[in-house]
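Handout, page 2. Input:
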Amino acid sequence: MQKQNYWHKVLLLVFCFSCWGCGKTYETSIPHVSFNFSCNLAQSPYYKITIAGQFLAIQKNINGLRVGYGGLIIGRSIYSNDNSYLAYDAACPVEAKADVSLTVKDDGLGTAVCPHCGASFDLSNYGCRNDGKGSEVLRKYNSVIVNGNTLIVRN
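Output:
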């Protein structure tokens, strides 16, 4: 009996370490593109994203230049209790085409849906799939800075 308990413990440890150590990394098929975007958070329509759970899809910067591969999605997570903002590429990673951009739902949760394939993404949760299908995540842009009322996103 004692030998059986020992093996159960060993198997449990092996299982725990194998699950913990696998460290699933999700990659996106959206290519890296360089761009600069800035906006005044006190002006329309950008003031909307000062509220947690609100996101906007942007296609071009103030100079009329395209931002991101398929556009840009900016906003604040519903889990945000500070002044931090998130930025993602608006291209659907399932389609991986610059002309297939996600539509941001006005649900207060941070949901984006692909109008072509129907894939749903949780913007408040690092761009992960909402629908449990596939492992593609949104390309997240990490250079997001707030300076006074100005939000700056660079890649």
